[in-house]
TrEMBL record:
UniProt: deamido-NAD(+) binding residues: N374, E403, K513
Natural source organism: Vreelandella boliviensis LC1
CDD domains membership: GAT_Gln-NAD-synth (cd07570), NAD_synthase (cd00553)
UniProt GO BP: NAD+ biosynthetic process
Active site annotation, chain numbering: E45 (proton acceptor), E45 (proton acceptor), K113 (for glutaminase activity), C149 (nucleophile)
PROSITE patterns cross-referenced by the UniProt entry: CN_HYDROLASE, NITRIL_CHT_1
GO CC entries: cytoplasm
EC number: 6.3.5.1
Class of this enzyme: ligase
GO molecular function, one term: NAD+ synthase activity
Protein name: Glutamine-dependent NAD(+) synthetase
Organism phylogeny: Bacteria, Pseudomonadati, Pseudomonadota, Gammaproteobacteria, Oceanospirillales
């Protein structure tokens, strides 16, 4: 009987940085060997290219760079450690999603992913051919069944590996986060381990990539589906698993570190912080600038930005006009001081009046409407973009998912920006996150959370003047966007028909706006972006 130490390398690769990712892998193996006595080190899916590489896979030089990186790893990695790492590869003219096994200076085997997902954010059939061969690799007496992400959930590759003699299953993953995903993932792992009576090692990537964010949560369950080891969510690092051989064909993972369960608000907040931090840092921005209105959305966005980047890399700008309430100015100033960010006040009255003067002749004989409201927002956008250009700061947009869904945002105004941390967060969750963040340390003035929301673009304006209350609005939006329910089905669920038809029409009509909005962290199963691809011009009618 013997033991085996497997180390899960839960790391954050940079898409396209193949030499850098290879260097990260080499250093991780060195550390795993020294710190944990690793016999096996497992990296996530497509680690060397980063996930998802998208159309970088179509570049002819991709394969050349990968071969160079793999050659470097073969020459640098300690000979007594088995390394299992993900990368794309062209074999006999077809591109595959591969797991390569490196041992003793040689790439000894490759496994090609068989189940290629093509739903939600996944588009793997565009790039990869499916594999059709099982890989069971014996190392130090243990027979390892190698899988990649969707293979585990598909079932057929799992059964094939166990029938081929696998004594434990090792799966490389790039599983994006969305709300409730960690719980769902652990439940499925429990079920699949019980189905085949084998322990499963699940290694996931971590970090943000464009709108996707990966939570880590690498883990191991035993053959009964019981969780034995769970790496911390939202933290890069190396997590060891100790296996004991209890019989000729049975390897038992020993209980180890298990990261405590976190509240849903904390999990979501960490996703937003991680997504923003990686987007800004990986893109090379100096920091961010945002308009701080004294409202809940910009207040939460400011807190996220400070937690992601530090206060020294965040600038907040209050841009008041006639309708900006004194309490908004006071609350914005208080929060900026509370969080220690650079804060400026730039009144937009001179800009708005100048534009109105130029437009006076063209607007003669017309009534005041949303045009004048939008002009205020667009003046603010011009100021923020000027600061961005001058200081190298990315403009952080602050609209929530409820607003983006119904088009309550201004093109070239408050939609101006490079990224939106709360783009996929419904308004009701904005409040939940703000309250949760204040339980950690003071970050958002209480009055910002308690007062009725308003865009402050007209006298005494409140959001409830033109929209249902946010509890109702979000419930309708969840049914229509996340659940794909028809207007009639939503009404049958007890909602007011007038409210439902109004909301559904707004969602459908505003697709053109959302296409021009900055990207943001995807945290729901149906984010605006990769998940939901509706035609801008169409004749679909609500209720059909």
């Amino acid at each position: 009987m013997q033991d085996l130490t497997l180390v899960m390398a839960q790391l954050d690769p940079l898409v396209g940085d193949i030499p850098g990712n290879a260097a990260r892998a080499i250093e991780a193996v060195r550390e795993a060997r020294i710190e944990h006595g690793a016999d096996i080190v497992v990296f996530p899916e497509l680690f060397l290219s980063g996930y998802p590489p998208e159309d970088l896979l179509l570049r002819p030089s991709m394969e050349t760079r990968l071969r160079e990186a793999r050659a470097l790893m073969a020459s640098k990695v300690a000979s007594d450690v088995l390394v299992i790492v993900g990368y794309p590869g062209v074999r006999e003219g077809r591109c595959y999603n591969l797991a390569g096994l490196l041992y003793n200076g040689q790439w000894e085997a490759e496994y090609a992913k068989q189940a290629l997902p093509n739903y939600q954010v996944f588009d793997e059939q565009r790039y990869f051919a499916p594999g059709n061969e099982t890989l069971v690799y014996e190392h130090k007496g243990a027979k390892l069944g190698i899988l990649i992400c969707e293979d585990l959930w598909d079932g057929a590759p799992v059964r094939a590996a166990t029938e081929a003699g696998a004594e434990m299953l090792i799966t490389l993953n790039a599983s994006p986060y969305h709300q409730d995903k960690p719980i769902e993932r652990l439940r499925l792992l429990e079920e699949h381990a019980q189905d085949v009576n084998r322990p499963i090692v699940y290694v996931n990537t971590i970090g943000g990539q464009d709108e996707l964010v990966f939570d880590g949560g690498s883990c191991c369950v035993n053959a009964s589906g019981q969780l034995q080891v769970l790496a911390p969510y939202w933290q890069a690092g190396l997590m060891p698993i100790q296996f004991l051989q209890t019989s000729a064909t049975v390897w038992e993972p020993q209980p180890g570190e298990i990261d405590p369960e976190v509240e849903p608000e904390e999990s979501l907040y960490c996703a937003l912080v991680t997504g923003l931090r990686d987007y800004v840092n990986k893109s090379g921005f100096e920091g961010v600038v945002l308009g701080l209105s004294g409202g809940i959305d910009s207040a939460l966005s400011l807190a996220i930005a400070v937690d992601a980047l530090g206060p020294q890399r965040v600038q907040a700008v209050m841009m008041p006009y006639h309708y900006t309430a004194d309490i908004s100015k006071q609350d914005a100033a208080e929060q900026a001081k509370m969080l220690g960010v650079h804060y400026e006040i730039m009144p937009i009255e001179p800009m708005v009046e100048a534009f109105m003067g130029t437009l006076a002749e063209s607007f003669a004989g017309t009534e005041r409407d949303t045009t004048e409201e939008n002009l205020q927002s667009r003046c603010r956008g011009v100021l923020l973009m000027a600061i961005s250009n001058k200081k190298g700061l990315m403009v952080l947009t602050t609209g929530n998912k409820s607003e983006m869904a119904v088009g309550y945002a201004t093109l070239y105004g408050d939609m101006v920006g490079g990224f939106n941390a709360i783009k996929d967060v419904y308004k009701t969750w904005v409040y939940r996150l703000a309250r949760w963040r204040n339980t950690q340390s003071p970050a958002i003035p209480a009055r910002v959370i308690e007062r009725p929301p308003s865009a402050e673009l007209a006298p005494d304006q409140q959001d409830s003047d033109s929209l249902p209350d946010y509890d109702t609005l979000d419930a309708i939006l969840l049914s229509y966007i996340e659940g794909d329910m028809s207007a009639e089905a939503i009404i049958a669920g007890g909602f007011d028909a007038e409210d439902v038809y109004k909301v559904v029409k707004l969602v459908d009509r505003c697709e053109y706006k959302r296409r021009q909005a900055p990207i943001g962290v995807r945290v729901t199963p149906r984010g605006f972006g990769r998940d939901r691809r509706y035609p801008i011009v169409n004749g679909w009618q609500p209720g059909e």
